[in-house]
Amino acid sequence: MSGRLVCAVLMIVALPTIWSAASAQTPKAPDTLEARVRACTPCHGVQGEGTDNDYFPRLAGKPAGYLTNQLIAFRDGRRRYAPMNYLLEYQNDDYLQKIAAYFSALRPPPQQPSVTEASPAVLARGKTLITHGDQMHGVPACSGCHGPKLTGMEPGIPGLVGLHASYISAQLGEFRYGTRTAPSPDCMQLVAASLTEGDVAAVAAYLASQPVPADPSPVARGTLAMPLACGSEPH
Fold first, then answer.
1. Does residue 5 sit within a domain?
2. Distance between CA atoms of 165 and 51, rounded to whole angstroms?
3. How many helices (H) and strands (E) does the chain have?
């Protein structure tokens, strides 16, 4: 038997041992929800606090019902963003509820608000729309649904703090033009359609300039007398 053939035979015989040793040296990832959601952290932060990318929102502290609804919307294609659609395509409702509950319970340290280049007049208009609305044009105050601290309300109204202006503007635009929808009656579509382009920019700039409160928990269900009926908020 030639030397080369002997070496080949020895390698074949040794392969199971090599594979076994390699397997033994490679640690197995823990089968926990915390380990599984690490796929979310490059975009949404280690504790769901958001990242510097303008279009990846904060998840921590948002109502679990709201987060569940959004995960299902991405899975079912009612919200379109290819990476999210791909990741969630085959996940069942129960698993998505567990992911939502995980991020909802997180309380990372508050981040500093974004530095805004908006003028004082634009910020003042944004504050007016957030706190008082524009009754002449059928725009209710954002705080009427999202709470006085803008941290949302259980189970389905999201907090608005800790988001980038570009993300807020983009979402309002999607509601205005029907590329993002919510269960009927779609109150956000009605509100967004009543805003001018300038109003959208003002709301986005003001919200992005607000700090995340020390306790970002949403208010309890039924705390707020909502000015509009919303299909995403069960009664």
1. no
2. 13
3. 11, 0
DSSP-assigned letter for residue 113: P
Q: Residue 218: inside a domain, yes or no?
A: no
Residue 149 tokens read as 């601290």
Residue pair 60/49 in contact by the 8 Å Cβ criterion: yes
Output the pTM of the full model.
Answer: 0.85
Residue span of the structural domain in which 76 resides: 33-208
Dig out the tokens for 73 from the structure. 């919307």
Residue 215 lies in a domain: no
- Per the listing, tokens 């609804």 go with 69
Dihedral pair phi/psi, residue 134, rounded to 5°: -140, 85
Closest C-alpha among 109, 136, 131, 139 to residue 199: 139
Burial, 59: exposed, middle or buried (Cβ in 10 Å; 0-12, 13-18, 19+)?
Answer: buried
Could you give the CA distance from residue 98 to residue 104 in angstroms, rounded to a whole number?
A: 10
pLDDT tens per residue, range 46-97: 999 999 888 899 999 999 999 999 999 999 998 999 999 999 999 999 999 9
